[in-house]
Structure prediction request, 123 residues.
Amino acid sequence: MIWWEGRGGLGVIILLGSFIFSIFGAEYLVQQFPDQFPASLLSDAIPIGWAIGGMTCWILGRRWNRSDEPGLDGNLFESIRDSIEDADHTILFLPMEYWGALSVSLAMLFVGISLIKWLIAIF
Prediction:
């Protein structure tokens, strides 16, 4: 099974890296400054990491997967480089930018569920 094509593997690294970095960053802030940051910052860091990783995947995926037709201007090396960079950049057969949009959507869903729980607890 092919998990990714082109630079799609970087999308996996970006999504997981931003998710893990946001959790460790929030944990560090809560431990170092317990008076300024509440313990609930850890649960708030999850959608932040998803959103940052998703936006990064969206931007890079759109850039890498755009359909620019390389022009043959006589430069052989430019034509070869353009044909290599013209590969599809996918993760599990979905373009990388769609994984970014899915990640941001999940982050918004998570924030919405947290907001609904908070509103139910208040009223």
Q: What stands out?
A: The chain has a mean pLDDT of 82. Residues 66 and 86 are 8 Å apart (CA to CA). The beta strands are 4-5, 90-91, 94-95. Residues 4-122 form one domain.
